[in-house]
Amino acid sequence: MIRAGVVLLSADGIAAIERVRDGRTYHVLPGGQVEDGESPAEAARRETHEELGLLVKIRGEVAVVHFGDSTQHYFLAERIGGEFGTGDGPEMDSPADSESGSYRAVWLPLTGLAERHLKPRPVAAALEAAPDPLWLLEGWMETPVVYDEGV
């Protein structure tokens, strides 16, 4: 399975989706499955609109995460329009007590990402460890960082 998502930074922090599922709260970077006929970058842009309500410009691929049988592509994105929190993808109406759990667009501060359980973990760890996350992202632009999270 191929998935794609975005790393979107602002003065408010990093854009994330807060998930409440099976009584647990965690956060994921915005994104989802790549559909037939769609490139990972196109999927990342579409998913950002569906989940966050934002239009973004993809600046470049910054990370590839291998997790089980899934390959996840993450792209640095720049906001070019829309209103944060107005995503209307089908998952956004899912209640916390449903099988898939709830989804809510949030901004997370760049400190304490591990405590907020931001996934994928390698990307969260790299962002948190960087002395200046914007510098780290500019460095990632040259060659995407590849992580293997195992199963």
What does this protein structure show overall?
This protein is an alpha/beta fold and 151 residues long. It has one domain (2-150): Nucleoside Triphosphate Pyrophosphohydrolase (Alpha-Beta Complex). The protein contains 3 helices and 10 strands, in the order E-E-E-E-E-H-E-E-E-E-H-H-E. It has helices at residues 40-52, 121-129, 133-140, and strands at residues 2-7, 9-10, 13-21, 24-28, 31-33, 54-67, 70-82, 102-108, 118-119, 145-150. The strands form 2 sheets. A 5-stranded mixed sheet has the order 5-1-7-6-10, sandwiched between helices. Strand 3 (13-21) and strand 4 (24-28) form a beta hairpin. The protein is globular and about 40 Å long. The two termini are 14 Å apart.
Tally the structural domains. 1
Low-confidence stretches: none
Give the CATH topology.
Nucleoside Triphosphate Pyrophosphohydrolase
* Helix-strand makeup class: alpha/beta
Q: What is the count of helical runs?
A: 3
Spell out the CATH superfamily: Nucleoside Triphosphate Pyrophosphohydrolase
Strand order of the largest sheet: 5-1-7-6-10
Order of helices and strands: EEEEEHEEEEHHE
What is the helical fraction, as a range of percent? 10-25%
Query: What is the CA-atom radius of gyration, in angstroms?
Result: 14 Å
Q: What CATH architecture would you give?
A: Alpha-Beta Complex
Oligomer: single chain
Backbone shape = globular
